[in-house]
Amino acid sequence: MLLALSIYPLIYSVKLAAADRRNFTRLFTDRLFLTASIQTIWLTLSALSIEFLLGLALALLIDSLARGRMFFRTALLIPMLLPPVVAAVAWRLIYNPQFGVLNGTLRRLGFHTADLTWTSGESSALASVILVDVWEWTPFLFLLLSAGLQAIPPEPLEAARVDGAGAWRIFRDVTLPLLKPTIVLALLLRTMDLVRIFDQIFILTQGGPGTATETVSLYIYRTAFRFSNFGYAAAMSFVLLAATLLFSRGLLRAMRAR
Amino acid sequence: MKRTRAGWYEAARKAAALVPYLAAVAAVFIALAPVYWLLTISLKREVDQFAYPPQWIGFTATLEHYRDAFAGGSFAAYFENSVLLAAISTLAALAIGVPAAYGLARFEWPRQWDHRIGDWILSTRMLPPIVTIVPLFLMLRQARLLNSLTGLAIVYTGFNLPFVVWMMRGFFEEVPKEIEEAAMLDGESRAGALLRIVLPLVRPGLAATAVFCLVVAWNEFLFALILTQTEAAMTLPVGIASRVTQYEIKWGAMSAAGVVAMIPVLVFAAAAQKYLVRGLSLGAVKG
User: Fold this and answer.
1) What is the pLDDT of residues A204-215, one digit of tens each?
2) DSSP SS3 for B80
3) Cα-based distances in Å from A113 to A96, B9, B33
4) Which of B31, B32, B131 sits opposite A240 (nearest CB)?
5) Which of A227, B139, A21 is nearest to A219 (CA)?
6) Of A5, A135, A230, which is closest to B134 when you measure between CB atoms?
7) Which of A74, A89, A139 lies nearest to residue B258, judging by beta carbons?
8) DSSP string for residues in B172-238
9) Which residues 221-250 of B have a C-beta within 8 angstroms of A?
10) Which residues of chain A make contact with B131, given a CB cutoff of 8 A?
C-alpha cells in the first residue's frame, strides 16, 4: 500500500517527465516558474518569521498568566483547525474592497479606504495572502512552543533567578537554549507546509491578480490540469520535491535529536 | 477621597497586571473574529450581509441560507460524501496501520532498518501532495476510479496510513512488554493479547490518532479537487470552492456550508485536545 502510493507515483512521474528532455530544459527559461519560485520562497520566509515571533510572544504571554490559560490556549487554536477552504472563504468576505468588513470597519473609524484593495491589488495581494496564513498558522507555532515551554524543568530557571539574573537574561540564556529543539522542529514542520501552500491561495486569488500570488504548487496544478501538460508538471514537481527533501532531512535529524 | 502615594502605586501595579490579560483577549478576538463574521453572514438576510456600517450584532437572524444550501441545494450530498470518505478512509488506515505499528513496536528489527522505516514513513508524510498528484491522477484514470469516492478513499487511506503507523508505534512502545507477555503465558494468542490487553491500554492514543485521520480527510482539498470533478463525487470543501469561483457567488449558502463544515472539526479537536501537540508534531513533542 505504502509502496503503491509513494514509490510508484514517483517512478511514474520520472518516466513522464523524462519522456521529453525539453521538460527539464524549459524549467530554466520559464519566467513564470521563476516568478512562482521566488514568490513561494518570499511567502515562506516572511510568513514563517512573522508566525514564529508572534507564536513565541503568545506562548510566553499565555504562559505568564496566572488564570485562564486553558481557555486562551483553546480559543487561540481554532483558526488552525478549520478546513483551510472555509478559512479562506471567511477571508474573502473580509477582504472584499467594496463590501468587505475590513474596509467597512476602517471606513467607519475614519480611514480612507479607496486604495486598500487587499487581495485584488497587484502590490498588496501577496501580503494579504501572507496575513491570512499568519492568522491561520500562528496558532501552530504557539501550540508547539507552549508545549515546549511547559516541558522546561523549573530548576534551571530557579537557579538563574537566585543568581540574580534579570528576566531578559533568563529568557535569552536559559529559556531559549532549552526551547531550541522545539523551535527547530516547529519551524521545519511549518516550512514544509508553507512550501506546498495551495488551498488558501486557490480560494483567495487563484494566483492573481496577474501573477502576483502565483506559487509553485499552483503553477504545477495549472500546468497539469488546465493545460494538460503532465510531463512539464512532473518536471516541476521534482524541483519542489528536491527542495522539500532538503528540508525534511533537517527535520528528521531534529526529531531524532530530541 | 485622596489617594496616598502608596495607594496610587498599588493601583498602577494592579492595572499593569491586567495588561497581559488584555493582550490575550485581543489575540483571541483576532483569532475568532473572522470565524464569527462567517457565522453572521450565514445567518443574515441578504440585504444585511454587506450593509454599511458592518453589522456585528443585532441583525435579523434567518436560517434560510442553511435551508438553501442543505435542503434545496446540493450541499447535503457533499456533506454525505465527506462523512463517508472520512469514516471509510480512517477505518481502513487504522485496520492496516495498527497491526503494522504493533509489529514495528514489538518485534526486533535490525537497528539500521528501524531508522529507515521511520524515515520512510515520515517522508511520505512530507511529500508535497502536488508532487504525487499528477501520477495518481493518471493512475486512477487508467483504473477508471476517477470521479469516484472509492478512488479518493484509497488515496486518503494511503496518506493517513504512514501517520497511523508512526503515531501508534509510539503509543505501543509506551506499553510495557511484560503486560502482554503475562497474558500470553495465560494462554492468550498474540492477536488476542493485542486485541484484549494492549488495545484497551492505548485507547486514548488510538482515539486521538483516529481523530487526526478524520480531520485530515475532512479538511483535505487538493486531492479531492483534482480527483473528483463530477457533482456526484464532490466533497464539502470542493463544493464550497466550486461556488467561490463562480461568477455570481451566493455568500449566504456558502457561509452556511462553511459553518457546517467546521463544526465536526471543532468537536473532534476538543475530543483529542490532550494529544493535539503530539499529533501535530508527528509525535516529536509529547505535550
Assistant:
1) 888 878 888 899
2) helix
3) 11, 43, 20
4) B131
5) A227
6) A230
7) A89
8) HHTS-HHHHHHHHHTT--HHHHIIIIIHHHTHHHHHHHHHHHHHHHHH--HHHHHH--SGGG--HHH
9) 221-222, 225-226, 236-237, 240-241, 244-245
10) 13, 237-238, 240-241, 244
Q: What is the pLDDT of residues A69-121, one digit of tens each?
A: 888 988 898 999 999 999 999 999 899 887 788 888 888 888 877 777 888 88
Please name the residue of chain A whose CA is at the shortest distance from the CA of residue B55. Answer: A101
Where is B22: in which H helix or E strand? helix B5-43
Model pTM score? 0.88
For residue B46, give the C-alpha cell: 441578504
Whether A78 has its CB under 8 Å from any CB of chain B: the answer is yes
- Give the whole-angstrom CA distance, residue B253 versus residue A201: 21
Cell numbers representing residue A81 in the block: 483547525
Q: Which residues in B lie closer than 8 A to residue A143 (C-beta atoms)?
A: 276-277, 280
- Name all domains of chain A by residue range, CATH numbers in brackets: 31-257 (1.10.3720.10)
CB B286, CB B208: distance < 8 Å: no
